[in-house]
Amino acid sequence: MESTQVVIIGGGATGAGILWDLSLRGIKAVLLEQKDLANGATGRCHGLLHSGGRYVVKDIEAARECLAENQFVKKIAPHCVHDVGGLFVQYPQDDPAFFRQWEEAARTVGLASQHLSAEETLDLEPHLPKNILGAFTCPDAHVDVFQLAQSNIESAVSRGGAFRTYSEVTAIGITDGRVRSVSYRDTRNGDEFQIGCDMVINASGGWAQKVASLAGVDVPVRCDKGSLLIFNHNLVSRVVNRCRKPGDADILVPAGPVCVLGTSSITVPTPDGLTADPDEIQHLLGLGAELIPVLAEARVLRIFSGARPLYVPKSAGAAGGREISRGFALLDHETLDHVKGFVSIVGGKLTTYRLMAEVTANLVAAKLGVNEPCRTTETPLRQTIDETVLSRARKLLPAQAASIAERRLGPNLARIVAAIERRPELAEIICECEQVTLAELEFVLGDETLVPIRALTDVGRRTRLGFGPCQGTFCGYKAMLAGYRSHRWSAAEASTEFEHYLDARWKGQSFVSHGKQVEQLYLSHDLFGVTYNFHDQNGQ
Amino acid sequence: MRQDDVSLDNCLKCSDCNTVCPMLAAHPGYPGPKHLGPELERLRREGLPCDSEWLEYCLGCHRCDLACPNQVNVSELIAAAKARHRKPFIRQVRDFWFARPGLLGKILSVAPAVTNAVLAAGAARFGMSRIMRITSERSFPPYAKPDLPSPQASLRASERLLFFPGCAIRYNQPELAKTVVALLQRNGFAPEISTAGCCGVPALANGDGQEARRRARSNVEAMDQAVENGATIVTACPSCGHMLKSGLAELLEDDPELEKRAKRIARHTYDLAELLMAQSDAGKLNTKFRKTDLQLAYHAPCHQLSQGIGRPWYHLLRQIPGVQIEDLDAGCCGMSGTFGFKEEKYPVSMAVGQRLFERIHEAAPKMVASECATCRMQIEHGAKVQAIHPAEVLLQAYER
After folding, report:
1. Average confidence (pLDDT) over A67-87
2. Is A320's pLDDT higher than 80?
3. Which of A292, A428, A432 to mutate to test the interface with B (most CBs of B within 10 A)?
4. How distant is the Cα of B131 from the closest Cα of chain A, in angstroms?
């Protein structure tokens, strides 16, 4: 039986952050993820790196945490961050008392903020409604969640950490009140495995309760569904927040080429199979048009829902989603439930993922008797890129493709550049919307990457392939062929992969009820469903 | 381009625009209108560095706009990016002048004989080619005194009409203005000649957005009053026509008042053949043609097609007894105004025109009729056949 010191369950930002933190301390760890990385709440949020502005009025501690973490993440992972800044915009229909409270609270927390007149604000963001009263600036930013999770894992793996996707935990072995092993099943091929370990960390977000029950422990987590809309192109150049008591659809985040509007807040029984219903979407769109009027006519690419895993200690009662703390809790089940070697990290939010990883790793290191301090606040997640590689890339690729590849690939850009120099045909752009080259695709499909994919649907999380306006209509097929040609998949496997891929791409678009995306979806249905007879077994 | 233009959102990535792009057909390295237009615009709005020398290769033919089934302003997106594109110094200087045929025409037509002698001199052309990157493969159109007729209202005058001549007619072929005026008079109109300057197409094509907007503003101011008083504008150059009909309003989008006036001008602008064809449809065309034995081929300029009025000259010329006319239907000629004069673009300009040249050879006409001055230059240069404005054929066919 394989053995390690720590098994981490959950491949979101927190799990990935823990794997990196432990690896930096020299602790052997294996991360098990039931699907692909960032498949849960991490991959289904705004991607907003909070400055704390959203919480200053109501939860000053959460605001302080956010502000500190915001600065750490910008420092250690600049390649994952679009440091665009944010605005808290004063709308005439909102309570003016809140503006004053906000300004005061921001000062107390030490949030660097400046007040802008309506005119100055409209100069910066011409799409805002003309009747706004002004705005406060703040250091909000966008963080690429897939890059962030991937970078943590990549760095951890290069330091001896291990990472397995499509590995669903089926049992946690406990003998004499102590965790001894974890059993898991490879959901792609059905193989069963067991890993011996000294400790298990439950970082499974919305699934924390389910995972904890495998150890006979109850972890009360409430899943709070938030739905978000992705718009085809960037309509604002900085994060736009509505300066009011936090509510639905009051944040628009410029997220690379797209922008993301959200969210709703609805309690759901499980984080699996979430969908946005038409009323909810109309509600979000209506509020979105109050925020930025042009959203009413802009193209929606996809609508998706994630579940905030909120920690609800039994004393919290029946409060609703937004009243429950966004803070996190580290549960030591040795003291709480007499299960040695089992800890759960629950609640929290993307912005504080590193801090959550730090406190978890501190506890685990102490229990393992490892006396290494946390070094994640000062260790960059990625090495710098050789300047000569960059200039070679700029010669081989168009300006925007080179700039995107640099950001996405980091030091791995050297491999891509060398591959194109060897075989110039690899410079072909496979995904035109997101400028993914055949060379990058082959790298992701190959064996040299530290964060390998298993399914065609994983490719987008590594490269953004298929994330643009056509939603994979014209690149998914080419990606499947690349997988077949590189002998990763047989013809039959490649075909099945593509069917699953289409199904996943179609699902997110199917909630969009208006505008050009509906035509785009029909085009994809016509092309692949009707003309080429690709049908998912689930019957799309 | 309006800041809130969201037409890039309409792109379904179908590539219909790419299938009709003449540059893409001739030059496999060219990224095509889909990429340079809506695709890159999305990344430009993200703030990524997207500048590309390929922007200079857009011919501005508007065939992509016509082909798009989803109302994407493809060529407008490209033109806006072209206006922000950075060029090396020499090309900047050359394109500054190419963008201003009106100013150039004013200077060069002061002493046309001198101008023409210099422009034809081998040494001068060698120097221009080496220093200014202007090809010596082509001859320049000769310059003439802008001696335009200024007709008074004739006895049969029935409608007030303003003829917009454009730079090529004003400075290079002023006799064509006389032809147009005579043709209109033969059909009962009493045209006056507009004093408005360059339409702005060359400025836009050479990436000089500011100059294009200046031209648009000045032209609106020059013609607005006449149009308000009920005048109709007539063009005989398809590029001027295209600009007056759709370009002016686009260029003036930032000024709602001027944009409104530009739209009014657009509504009252007609291509000469469009106007005569409307007369013909109403049974009012003067058809006193004498039999004219002439074997002609007709080439439809891109900016004629982009006006969405079909091929009225082809249908008009067919009405002349004895005239045999073949519609060449062979795409873009590749000249694109000043594009074909650029040293580095000359080979690809000829490559684009290859299909047309071959079609002309197959058809073996006595002359090619085409209403665009630079199409005619390209046809004479590439196919070695005389090319004339169809108005000349029509006027000559009238009984004296």
Report:
1. 97
2. no
3. A432
4. 27
CB of B43 within 8 Å of any CB in chain A? yes
CB atoms B13 and A470 under 8 Å = yes
First to last CA, chain B: 50
Confidence of residue B1 (pLDDT cuts 50, 70, 90): low
On whether any CB of chain B is under 8 Å from the CB of A126, the answer is yes
For position B149, what pLDDT does the model report? 80
Instruction: Measure in Å the smallest separation between the Cα of A435 and chain B Cα atoms.
Output: 10
Mean pLDDT, rounded, of chain B: 94
What are the two backbone dihedrals, phi and then psi, of residue A238, each rounded to the nearest 5 degrees? Answer: -140, 165
- Fold held by B87-109+144-285: Glutathione S-transferase Yfyf (Class Pi); Chain A, domain 2 (1.20.1050)
Chain A contact present for B46, CB below 8 A: yes
Distance CA B58, CA B79 (A): 8
What's the pLDDT score for residue A126? Answer: 94
Least confident segment among A297-311, A442-456, B141-155, B234-248: B141-155
pLDDT bucket at A446, cuts 50 / 70 / 90: very high
Alpha-carbon distance of A109 to B185, in angstroms, equals 81
Cβ neighbours of B39 in A, within 8 Å: 432-433
Q: How far apart are CA A287 and CA A296, in angstroms?
A: 10
* B156: confidence class by pLDDT, cuts 50, 70, 90: very low
Query: Phi and psi (nearest 5°) for B395?
Result: -65, -45
Tell me the domain boundaries of chain B.
Answer: 7-84, 87-109+144-285, 287-397
The CATH number of domain A2-40+146-220+325-368 is 3.50.50.60: yes
- Closest of B92, B101, B82, B98 to residue B37, by C-alpha: B82
B175 interface with A at CB cutoff 8 Å: no
What topology is assigned to A82-141+223-307 in CATH?
A: D-Amino Acid Oxidase; Chain A, domain 2 (3.30.9)
CB contact under 8 A, A299 and B6: yes
Q: How many CB pairs under 8 A join A and B?
A: 78
Contact B104, B205 (CB under 8 A): no
CA distances in angstroms from B339 to B9, B133, B376, listed in the order given: 30, 12, 14
**Window 243-282 of B, Cβ < 8 Å to A:** none
Average pLDDT, chain A: 94
Fold of B287-397: Rossmann fold (3.40.50)
Tens digits of residue pLDDT in B181-193: 999 999 989 899 9
Residue B4 with chain A: CB contacts under 8 Å = 126-127, 294
**Is the pLDDT reported for residue A326 higher than 70?**
no
Looking at residues B82-88, what average pLDDT do you find? 94
Domain regions of chain A by residue span: 2-40+146-220+325-368, 82-141+223-307, 428-531
Task: Give phi and psi for A302, each to the nearest 5.
Answer: -150, 155
How far apart are the C-alpha atoms of B111 and B300, rounded to whole Å?
34
Report which DSSP code applies to A465: T
A484/B49 Cα distance (integer angstroms): 34
Whether A523 and chain B come into contact, CB under 8 Å, resolves to: yes
Is A124 an 8 Å CB contact of chain B?
no
Strands in A141-143's sheet, in edge-to-edge order, are A48-49, A141-143, A81-82
Which of A 62-91 lie inside 8 A of B, CB atoms? Answer: none
Q: What is the pLDDT of residue B157?
A: 45
Cα(A350)–Cα(A338) distance, rounded to whole angstroms?
30
Length of chain A: 540
Distances from the Cα of A208 to the Cα of A4, A162, A167, A205, A319, angstroms:
22, 21, 16, 5, 20
- Closest alpha carbon within chain A to B34: A432
CA atoms of A307 and A319, how far apart (whole Å): 17
